What we know:
CATH superfamily: NADP-dependent oxidoreductase domain
CATH architecture: Alpha-Beta Barrel
Domain NADP-dependent oxidoreductase: 42-299
Pfam family, one: Aldo_ket_red
Order of helices and strands: EHHEHEEEHEHEHEHEHHEHH
Organism: Deinococcus radiotolerans
Radius of gyration: 18 Å
Number of helices: 11
Protein name: Oxidoreductase
InterPro entries: AKR2_Oxidoreductase, NAD(P)_OxRdtase_dom_sf, NADP_OxRdtase_dom
Amino acid sequence: xxxxxxxxxxxxxxxxxxxxxxxxxxxxxxxxxxxxxxxxxxxxxxxxxxxxxxxxxxxxxxxxxxxxxxxxxxxxxxxxxxxxxxxxxxxxxxxxxxxxxxxxxxxxxxxxxxxxxxxxxxxxxxxxxxxxxxxxxxxxxxxxxxxxxxxxxxxxxxxxxxxxxxxxxxxxxxxxxxxxxxxxxxxxxxxxxxxxxxxxxxxxxxxxxxxxxxxxxxxxxxxxxxxxxxxxxxxxxxxxxxxxxxxxxxxxxxxxxxxxxxxxxxxxxxxxxxxxxxxxxxxxxxxxxxxxxxxxxxxxxxxxxxxxxxxxxxxxxxx
Length: 319
């Protein structure tokens, strides 16, 4: 069940790389021309403007994305747009103090005091309630899906009209999602949205995401280009793009990221697919995916074992 306006593309813009000066996307160091607050705000607004002009009506942010919520809220107010669906997340706190070289960039706490603090912070930064509000990177071992106090508060938000859910990460995404699908508060399911990593290197959550979609949840997919591993940035450059992906891209006359995202859009249970573009040029390349036909299983042989994929992701440096 999607919550996009009628006619909007199944595409969204994620602000993880645009709300703070450091992130783990490959090539991020070269993407930001001005890392000062005003400079990064201007770049975020330029990418948001380009996305809106292209018809994109979903924006994703989080408390831990530096000033991502504030940048998005300021842009919405300045432009006067009322037709943008906004998703945000709670559970991580940004602690890098605008420093790329910080030892720690964000701290995870999935408890009631964090939720109680971050909900009003999100309201203030956005200037409105988000349409979707997610536990940020919920995992089975964090205990958040058994925390009665947290679940009760989230159920209250759901009753007020906010779509409540969770984002997932790590090799056990499917287990986490299935646990969330079974959660009930006073006999009713509080959750109706999931944001998960799915790309041609890491498709392991696919069956669970199909189950969530069949249950009426909105499925939002992130990291479709694997933090730059499926782009011309690669790990050491263009030569690292998997040959089948590079061949499809050449055949369609597009960049590899467009084909990677088209493969995500081809999944029948994908309601919204996020672009993590840091520049308007990257966004334009990503948006080419909307005009491509890539069979849902075209690149299935590129899948990595989940543990290996997430281990490689964990070793990407903040830049």
